[in-house]
Amino acid sequence: MARIPKKITQAYLEAAALHYLERFASSAANLRRVLQRKVQRSAAHWGDDAGQFAPLIDRLLERYQASGLIDDKRYAEAKVASERRRGRSTRAIAQRLAMKGVANEITKKALDEHEGDDVTAARAFAKRRRLGPYRTAKRSELRDKDLAALGRAGFAYEIARSVVDGEID
User: Fold this and answer.
1) pLDDT in tens, 26-73
2) Which of 11, 28, 133, 150 has the most CB atoms at less than 10 Å from its CB?
3) Please, one GO biological process term (predicted)?
4) Whole-number Å distance between alpha carbons of 24 and 7
C-alpha cells in the first residue's frame, strides 16, 4: 500500500526542510534536491506543476543561508574532518562533497585548511580495514590485495606502498 504524498504548501516545505536538517547536516544544493524530490512526488500524485514550487524552495534556502542554518563552508569543513578521521583520501572526500553539491573552491579551501594528509588517512584506513601492518597473518601473500584496496579508496600508489610495507607506529 503506497503512501499518498502530502500536498505541497509553504508550511509543509518548511517543516520538511527543518525536519531534514534536524537529522542531517546538509549543503544548500543537497537540501534543494531533497525538497525537489518531495515536490516531484507530490506533483505527480496531485497533478500539479512541479515548477511552480521552485520559487518557494529558493526563498526558503535563501532565508536559511542568511540565518546561518545552512552554510556550505561549515558543512565542508566538518565533512572533511569527519572523513579524514575515517581514513578517506583527498580524492574521495572531494568526490563526496561534489555529490552533495558543494562548490569546488569551497571543497579545496576546506581540504587545504584541514591539518590531516593522505598518509595519515591511509594509515587510518589500513587500520580500520586491517590491511598491511595491521594484518595478523599472511601479510606478504596479501600485499597486492592491500595495495589494490588502498588504490580503490583513492590513495596514490606511493602512499599505498609506504603504508602497506610500513610498520605500525
Assistant:
1) 999 999 999 999 999 999 999 999 999 999 999 999 999 999 999 999
2) 150
3) regulation of DNA repair
4) 24
